[in-house]
Amino acid sequence: MGLCAALSLTACVVAPPPEPQPEQTIDGIPVSQIVPGYERIEDNGYVLPAVPAGYLAGVNRRAVVPYRGTVAPGSIEVDPYAKFLYWVQADGTAVRYPIAVGREGRGISGSFSIARKAEWPGWTPTANMLRREPEVYGPFRNGIPGGLASPLGARALYLYRGSRDTYYRIHGTNDLSSIGSSGSAGCIRLFNQDAIDLYNRIPDGTRVVIRSREDSVRIEGPLMATRGVQLPPFYSGEGQRPPVPQAMVPDEYYGNPAAQAGVSYIPDETDIYGVDGAPLAAASPTGVEMISTSYAPAQG
Length: 300
Hints:
single chain; L,D-transpeptidase catalytic domain-like; two-stranded antiparallel sheet; 6 helices; alpha+beta; ten-stranded mixed β-sheet; 300 residues
C-alpha cells in the first residue's frame, strides 16, 4: 500500500515550466522586429546588416501605394521635398521609396535618363566639391573604392541628359538616419536594401523626373512636403546616429493633404534633434530607443 501511495504521489508532481528562451537576434535586432524588405543581405561578398525598425517608422519605408502624380508608367519621379522616390507602375500604383536629399540633390530639377547602373561603385569627389569644401573632401580627392566604405553604397544609378553626365546620382547610403531628411552632401540616397531593390527593377534608359515644390505640396500635402530636418555631415566611423522623429510622419497622413492642415511635429523633452538637425542628446548604443514621434494639430 505504501509503495502504491508513493507511486500515486509521484505521478501527481507537475514538472516546472521550461525556462523562456531569449529571442534569436540578427545584427543585434530581435527577429520579430526585423521589417520585411530590410533584412540582412549578403551581396557580392559584402554584408549589409538589417535596418533597425526605428529608422523605418511611419512613411519611412518602402511601400506600394496609389500613384497620384503625372509621370508615365515605367518612369521614376523624385520628390526632394517630401523625400520620396516613386517607381511608377502601369496599374496606377507606384513603389514608394523613402530618400535622403543631399546638397547636390537639392539643386536638381527637370528630367534625366539613367544611362549607367553600377554595383558597389567607387566614389570620387567632384572638382566643385573640392573647391567648395576642401577641408571635407580634400582627404578623398583620390577617391574611395567600391565597398562598405563608399558613400555611394551598394548601388548607384547615373543620371544623364543626352550623352552628358550630370554628376547627379541615385544611390545607396550607410547613413541610416539621413533617410527622410536633408543632408549636407550627396545626391538622392536610399537605404542600401532599397537601392538594391530599385536597381533590380529598372532598365537602363529609365526616365527620371524631379517633382517641383508646388506639386509636392499639392500632391503630398504641407506636412509631407516639409518632413525631416537638415542634418550635419555624417562620418561612418562614428557609428549610426539615432532616427530622426521629424522624418517619421505617421501613415495616416500619407495621401491625405486635407488631414495635414494645421498638423505639425510637436517637440518635447525627449527630442534628440534640434530644428537645425544638430543632436540634442547622445545616441543610444543601438540608435533606436531615443525616438519620439508626435504629430498633432498646432495649438493657438
